[in-house]
User: What shape does this take?
Amino acid sequence: MSYLHLRSVLSALLLTVMVVGARAQSPALATPEDYQARWTTGHLSRIDPSKLRHRDLVAYLAQLKAEGVKVEEVGRSLAGREIYQLEFGRGPLKVFLWSQMHGDEPTATSALVDLFHYWQGHRDDPAVAEMARQLTIRAVPMLNPDGAELFQRRNLQSIDINRDARRLVTPEGRLLKRLRDEWQPEIGFNLHNQNIRTAVGDSGRQATISLLAVAHDEGRSDTPGRVRAKKICTLFYQTLSRFIPGQIGRYDDTFNPRAFGDLISQWGTPVVLIETGGWFGRPEMDLVRLNFTALAWTLQELARGGVDRADPAVYDAIPYNQSGGMVPLIIRQATIVNRLREGSFEVPAYSADIAVNIEGARATIQDLGDLEGFAALDEVDATGYHVTVARGTLRTGGEATLLFYKSSRAKTIDWNAPDLETRYPPDVTFRQGRWTGRDKLGRH
Assistant: This one.
């Protein structure tokens, strides 16, 4: 067991002790596992976050409003799409959450919908009722509905809203600042997605979720507000370690004077950044469930004073992210036939590893050669196979439509045949990110 995994397990055990102790004082207190189960049986969100559009959110919010949740239109996007704010609770501690200021980072929008649905439906439960007495929670799901409609990071001005905190050129950015300034919340949650290739330090593990207690100055000072944010991150880490041990990273805390999280912290509202990455082999909705569980548990603990007892040193010990530290797929020990000819010269077959980048249905060759030491979300062993492309040449940056032939067939194949795949049916194929016959290959 790695040190990183062991620490995650110990952290989860510590949280178990906290839960047992808390339940002794309050039998109605829900555990993280309870929240997982309740999301599974009662979540409102049904659409994969990447497919969620503004009209779908409006439909969700209409249902929440019918259930009794306070739903208010608070502004419009550049194209005139409504931006809404949800509210729950009546307590003195004000908590402000916002999601999808980058239009292609949608996971937390669905989690917020499910949270308000849960709280409203369980408002008579002692733990939820206590939270409502202690906290007032406001949330803006989908701050960038125009970007969400196109599934792009930026708004229709092609401006990154999260880098518009100083100049406030975007209407969405101006709205976010106004909501913060008028209400003056004590805690903020900035909810994002990160690249699925992000790794936890040099562990070779995918960073499924990364946390940041946002700095408010270049010195990254530990003010009381930032220490509180670190304690909140500690609870998040301990909660998530029960479900994804070793897959939680710490986001780079370099102060950015253009970014909303940094300046909102500077303006007086300490901010926790939650970055949801990938969870290899799992559906999108599992990431929604993780967000729901961690937010529900942490806000419950915030209401009952559990955050004050958390140890910020746990957060400080989380390894930093390594951006781009993971490759989606590595094919090991392939014999490459790249089909490159220059006059009468053709490149002979050679042995190499292939790194493949996968984005949706598009797959491209990222690297070729000795890739030992590179970490990948998925690996296969192509020993005993010749590998080529369906068309063109096998090269970095090229399309990764790959054909695998048993090496015993290599001498019988005309690799320059224009109808190669039809004339010589491959044993295994990899096309548009999908395999046919993969079980014939070994696992590295």
Summary: The chain has twelve helices and 20 strands. The chain has two domains: 3-322, 327-440. The mean pLDDT is 93.
